[in-house]
Fold this protein.
Amino acid sequence: DIQMTQSPSSLSASVGDRVTITCRASQGITNDLGWYQQKPGEAPRRLIYAASTLQSGVPSRFSGSGYGTEFSLTISSLQPEDFATYYCLQHNSYPRTFGQGTKVEI
Amino acid sequence: QVRLQQWGAGLLKPSETLSLTCAVYGESFNDYFWTWVRQIPGKGLEWIGEVNHAGRANYNPSLKSRVSILGDTLKKQFSLKLRSVTAADTAVYFCARAALNRPLDYWGQGSLVAVSS
């Protein structure tokens, strides 16, 4: 299985802050990676696919980058509605695997 | 607008079989991979497996011996069966869709399944 190591596991930030979350794959996955936001009691919502393509309808303050084994999700200016848990997901090989999640707190 | 709606029993006893169904609205059943993911309360996400319209399935090896995912193209539904459940299978189960070479995009609302004697 490909292990996805996500960091940090949690972070505290303020509205307006720039926040970066990283995912490291245990082997190369080209750009077969998505980023998700999940709020309590809700299903995950896809933010980014193909490592850096913004999902339609997602604010442009979200961006993704990376290729191979190192990936990052950046929120350029944190908004109140962005406080949530974020996950990466690799779909390069089976079984698909998620990162452990990053909880973004105030 | 694509919508996935899921249902199934929410309370099971140990050794019983978990059974969930997900219906697909607003989109063809073909050309996608229909997926189940679970989330133990307070924990992360675990990919269980998927099935395509032709009935080809892929499973997580950690669950493969107990899981079956089937699709019904005519009804535009797919199902999850997990046999011999234990308390460790207590989780919120989500159905979801993936396009070819794309990660999961549309998700069901989630179903909490609790296993308790």
Remarks:
- The beta strands of chain B are 3-8, 11-12, 18-25, 32-39, 45-52, 57-59, 67-72, 77-82, 91-99, 111-115.
- Residues 2 and 26 of chain B are 5 Å apart (CA to CA).
- The mean pLDDT of chain B is 96.
- Chain B touches chain A through 23 residues (CB under 8 Å).
